[in-house]
Amino acid sequence: MNGTALRAEERRIAEQFMGRTPWIMVIWGLGGTLAWLALWPLVLGGHLSLWIAAPIATVIVCYSYLPAHDALHHIIGRPGTRLHWLNEVVAEASLIMIVFPRRPARLTHFEHHRHTNHAERDPDYATRAPNIWAAIWQSIAGRHPKTSRKMEAYRTLLSAMPTKDAKDALLDLLISRIAFFTILAVLAWSGYAIEAALLWWLPRHVAITYIEVVLSWAPHHPAVETGRYRTTRAFTSPVGTLLTGALQYHIVHHLYPTIPLHKTPAAFRAMRHLLEKQGCALGGL
Amino acid sequence: MLMIRALLAIGPFLFGLAFIAPVVAQCLQRAQIGPLIIHHAGLAFSFSIPTLAIGLTVGGTMGLAATIAGRWL
What we know:
The complex is a heterodimer of chains A (285) and B (73).
Chain A: H1 3-15, H2 23-44, H3 50-62, H4 65-72, H5 84-95, H6 102-114, H7 132-141, H8 149-160, H9 164-220, H10 240-244, H11 250-255, H12 264-277
Helix pairs in contact in A: 1-12, 2-3, 2-4, 2-5, 3-9, 4-5, 6-9, 7-9
Chain B: H1 2-9, H2 11-30, E1 36-40, E2 43-47, H3 51-69
Antiparallel strand pairs in B: 1-2
């Protein structure tokens, strides 16, 4: 089988996993956001201990990006279709918790897909690190006021885009950031500082570290190649698919971004033999 | 826009006062940390500093240091 035939066969397999509305992502995205919102009156009203709510909030916020990511790719509803509004609601609602609005998230993420592992053009290139410990430390240190590498990369990228969408996205970023800190300050000075810290501020920081390390660093490591089959790798996970968010199969997503997240493991298994022939790094998976 | 940029430039200091300070103060209140008592030369000196003053000192100092150094840690 030559390269073109391999690609055609790969496409034929991939299409079997596309097209249907992934309702699980809608339930996950909206359910997670509603559950997180419900924690606030429960804790502030004294119905639920903060020490129980805080770890729940952390788990919800960590996993909030995954359904949003599917929605960023219009997997729930493509533009012009009946469910497009729902797609946008899932994206916007799920991203509230990590304070990253839909428009800048989508624009920067699409640039990541177009230019994966490119030092200047990939906005996620800042997560590149020699090992997992360096990736964790880099993620934390990357949030210092003057060394906010990833956010700076997003801002630089959006500023350089000459479109109105990019300007709107930049404004969304600014407004969301100011709104987040204003809400934290109002809650804190109203006597709910510890609640605000443990239900939002800290879970968001844990989630950003999780997203940057597990969802960004791990599947692209070592992030040195730029070909279609070499930008992403498969890997065996010592902590299971649930903790990695199935990102060990991320190679499938980069090849076919409209396959829903929960179908990427099955799609990977179905096309594994073809990926092997294309020289993909499958890491024993 | 100029005002927003000025606010962002001192963002960490504002964060220290607006968020870290009440977090520290409310942690001290929950921990029921009482007045500071120092024993010296057979005498006991009691310093009852309001928790908010401690919070503002800690938050303000951390925020100022982060604004100047550009790093929290």
